[in-house]
C-alpha cells in the first residue's frame, strides 16, 4: 500500500518518534489537528508499513551494558551455507544491536552491547565457534556522541 503523506502526517511521525507514549490527544494538539483524523492517519500509516511498531528505549549503561563495540568482519567464504550460519549466529545473539552487510573491503559490521571487555571476548569466542571468519577487527566506542532511532522525515518532492 502506498500513501501520500502531507505535512500533518510528517508532524505525526516526528511526534511518535520523539515519544510514542504520548496520548492521542497530546499528539493531535501538537500537530494542530483533531484526535479522530490523527488516529485515522496513524492507522493508515501502520497499514502501509510506514509505522512498523512501537518499542521502549532502555538506557544500556543503567542496565550494566557499558561497553559498545563495533565489529568489522571480513570473510573469505561467500557461499550460501556460510551465509546461513552467519545470519543465524548474528540474529540469535542478543548482544548484536545492529548488523549490516557492506560494500568495500569490509564485508559486515556489527554493533555489539555488552557489560565489559570480558563479556565481549565471550561473545567473540561464541561467534567464531559458530562461523568461520577471515578477519575480525573490534573497536570499542569511547564516547557515544549521538544515538537516535528517529529517521529524518523527507519533504515531498
Automatic annotation (TrEMBL):
Record's keyword annotation contains Signal: no
Any one GO molecular-function label of the UniProt entry: sequence-specific DNA binding
Biological-process GO terms, alphabetical: regulation of DNA-templated transcription; response to amino acid
SUPFAM superfamilies according to UniProt: Dimeric alpha+beta barrel, Winged helix' DNA-binding domain
Keyword line: DNA-binding, Transcription, Transcription regulation
Domain of life the protein comes from: Bacteria
Signal peptide start-end: none
UniProt keyword DNA-binding present: yes
Protein name in the entry: Lrp/AsnC family transcriptional regulator
Annotated organism of origin: Pontivivens marinum
Amino acid at each position: 500500500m502506498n500513501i501520500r503523506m502531507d505535512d500533518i502526517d510528517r508532524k505525526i511521525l516526528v511526534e511518535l518518534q520523539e515519544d510514542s507514549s504520548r496520548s492521542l490527544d497530546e499528539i493531535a494538539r501538537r500537530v494542530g489537528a483533531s484526535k479522530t483524523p490523527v488516529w485515522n492517519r496513524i492507522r493508515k500509516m501502520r497499514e502501509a508499513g510506514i509505522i512498523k511498531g512501537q518499542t521502549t528505549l532502555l538506557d544500556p549503561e543503567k542496565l550494566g551494558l557499558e561497553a559498545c563495540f563495533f565489529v568489522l568482519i571480513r570473510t573469505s567464504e561467500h557461499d550460501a551455507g556460510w551465509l546461513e550460519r552467519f545470519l543465524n549466529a548474528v540474529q540469535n545473539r542478543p548482544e548484536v544491536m545492529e548488523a549490516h552487510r557492506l560494500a568495500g573491503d569490509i564485508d559486515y559490521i556489527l554493533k555489539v552491547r555488552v557489560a565489559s571487555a570480558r563479556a565481549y571476548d565471550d561473545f567473540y569466542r561464541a561467534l567464531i565457534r559458530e562461523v568461520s571468519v577471515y578477519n575480525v577487527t573490534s573497536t570499542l566506542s569511547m564516547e557515544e556522541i549521538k544515538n537516535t532511532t528517529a529517521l529524518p522525515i523527507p519533504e515531498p518532492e
